[in-house]
Amino acid sequence: MIRVYVAAPKGEVLRARQVAALVNEVYGAAVCSTWHASYQDGTPDPTDRELAHTILDENLRDLAVADVVLALPRFGTGVETYVEIGRALAAGIFVVMSAEHGGLPLSRVDDGAKVYATDAAALVGIAEIARCRAH
Question: Rounded to 5 degrees, what are φ and ψ at 122?
Answer without folding.
Answer: -65, -40
